[in-house]
């Protein structure tokens, strides 16, 4: 059965969710304040790079199942299921999450709700937010008690957003156990096809659902920092962290995923989510429980410093006037997202230390140049590496993994490479006469 759905926010999360819900056969209206973005989306064009999204988006728009608006009134009149999919970034100068966008959606939408409706929050929020928003919705909405608020966290990864939305590992729904609401019944309709396909559908209280998202990201971050801490030991004793991760990964209780050592995690989610969890734990009187995450964060940030130090060391002790090539600006491959990107952060640090930095990324240069306009951006690998005295691979794009050292040998000034993602074949690079430095690898 088809539902009438509104999705508030058309970023990585909202645009993908709107397109995928329409793909499932629902009638969807995507809502945003950014009219440029809306017109691109309405033309079936993704405003950011996300493999597979554009074809789903285009066919959803062409089928008439998906349209876009900046009018909350239109959305409120049309839909009876409202997804909140706006960003919750880190507050400036604080660890806590900035809920401005979520709160403004509620403030604008709720007074327009004059018929029964279900609001399903997808944005990552501090535990306790859903209950608080539900109170304010009932106060503001003419339909009052006929509006339900539940939390339905999203676990999609950038680069796999469509696949993760249509075939998630699980669907979580946090409902108000004290009320006899319609949220579960409606969510079961929205996700009927996935539930029929066997995707686990877990119904919890709202607080557990909110926490399940931050806990998942905190666990993933902890796994990455754990292996990066092991990389520090490997570096000290000449052991190989990649082999170590392979050994650990064969233990099915541990698993191999998220055990890739390197320059650490970044992006719009993991870093800010662990900080928001620490902040919230403090607010609810459980700060001791999360001193662990402080260490996870500092191990992660240390990777960036250490990589810049390694570049200086390779350059002979100082980066002043040294020409450096940085391959990669996105926080991970198959994404043009540079939010809190370790690659770009390192490129910036190298420049601050006096290096002349030339950056190339297959997709993220446009976004990177907005954030770091003073770095030089090249059009391709060769352009970035011309006369380079040190080359760093900081995002493991397939294009970089497949580089032939022989092709670069005559382009660079000195054959010195730092593999910030342990993604290159070190024997091949060394065999071609390069000084190769990986992370936690002899
Ligand atoms: C992350 C989670 O993986 C998603 O489940 C979640 O829905 C999403 O955040 C979110 O909160 O919206 P994402 O930010 O797209 O997804 O990126 P990840 O694939 O988790 O990678 C995060 C960072 O960790 C990247 O910088 C990546 O390079 C790094 N990473 C990942 C490592 O350094 N080592 C690894 O082994 C894996």
Q: Could you give the topology of this structure?
A:
Elements lengths: L3 E5 L3 H12 L3 E5 L3 H8 L10 H11 L2 E4 L2 H7 L2 E4 L15 H10 L7 E5 L7 H12 L6 E5 L9 H6 L4 E5 L7 H8 L1 H5 L4 E5 H32 L3 H9 L20 H14 L7 H24 L8 E5 L14 H11 L3 E5 L4 H7 L4 E2 L3 H5 L4 E4 L4 H4 L3 H5 L6 E4 L6 H6 L3 E3 L5
Helix pairs in contact: 1-3, 10-12, 10-13, 12-13, 13-14
The structure holds uridine-5'-diphosphate-glucuronic acid.
Low-confidence stretches: none
Oligomer: single chain
Q: Given the helix and strand composition, which structural class is it?
A: alpha/beta
Number of beta strands: 14
Spatial separation of the terminal alpha carbons: 58 Å
Question: What is the helical fraction, as a range of percent?
Answer: 40-55%
Strand content: 5-15%
What's the gyration radius in Å? 23 Å
User: Can you give the mean pLDDT?
Assistant: 97
Bound molecules: uridine-5'-diphosphate-glucuronic acid
Specify the biggest β-sheet.
6 strands, parallel
Q: Give me the number of helical elements.
A: 19
């Amino acid at each position: 059965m088809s539902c009438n759905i509104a999705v508030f926010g058309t970023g990585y999360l909202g645009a993908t969710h709107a397109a995928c819900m329409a793909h499932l056969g629902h009638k969807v209206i995507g809502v945003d304040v950014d009219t440029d973005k809306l017109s691109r989306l309405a033309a079936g064009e993704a405003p950011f790079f996300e493999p597979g999204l554009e074809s789903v988006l285009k066919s959803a728009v062409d089928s008439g199942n998906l349209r876009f608006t900046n009018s909350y009134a239109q959305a409120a009149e049309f839909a009876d299921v409202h997804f909140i999919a706006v960003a919750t970034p880190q507050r400036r100068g604080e660890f806590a999450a900035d809920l401005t966008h979520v709160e403004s959606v509620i403030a604008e939408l709720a007074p327009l709700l004059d018929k029964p409706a279900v609001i399903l929050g997808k944005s990552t929020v501090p535990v306790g937010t859903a209950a608080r928003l539900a109170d304010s919705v009932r106060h503001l909405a003419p339909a009052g008690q006929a509006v339900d608020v539940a939390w339905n966290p999203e676990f999609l990864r950038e680069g796999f957003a469509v696949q993760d939305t249509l075939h998630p590992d699980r669907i979580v729904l946090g409902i108000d156990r004290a009320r006899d609401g319609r949220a579960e019944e409606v969510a079961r309709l929205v996700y009927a096809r996935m539930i029929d396909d066997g995707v686990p559908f877990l119904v919890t209280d709202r607080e557990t659902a909110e926490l399940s998202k931050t806990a998942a990201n905190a666990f993933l971050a902890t796994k990455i920092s754990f292996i990066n801490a092991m990389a520090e030991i490997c570096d000290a004793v000449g052991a190989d962290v990649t082999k170590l991760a392979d050994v650990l990964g064969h233990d099915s209780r541990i698993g191999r995923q998220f055990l890739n050592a390197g320059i650490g995690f970044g992006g719009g989610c993991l870093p800010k989510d662990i900080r928001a969890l620490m902040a919230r734990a403090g607010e609810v009187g459980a700060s001791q429980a999360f001193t662990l995450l402080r260490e996870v964060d500092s191990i992660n940030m240390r990777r960036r410093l250490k990589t810049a130090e390694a570049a200086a060391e390779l350059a002979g002790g100082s980066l002043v006037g040294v020409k450096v090539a940085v391959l990669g600006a996105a926080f991970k491959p198959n994404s043009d997202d540079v939010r809190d990107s370790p690659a770009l952060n390192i490129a910036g640090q190298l420049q601050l230390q006096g290096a002349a930095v030339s950056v190339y990324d297959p997709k993220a240069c446009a976004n990177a140049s907005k954030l770091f306009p003073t770095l030089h951006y090249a059009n391709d690998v060769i352009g970035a590496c011309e006369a380079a005295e040190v080359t760093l691979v900081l995002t493991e794009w397939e294009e970089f993994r497949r580089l032939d050292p022989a092709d670069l040998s005559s382009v660079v000034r000195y054959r010195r490479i730092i593999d910030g993602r342990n993604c290159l074949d070190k024997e091949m690079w060394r065999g071609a006469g390069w000084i190769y430095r990986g992370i936690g690898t002899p």
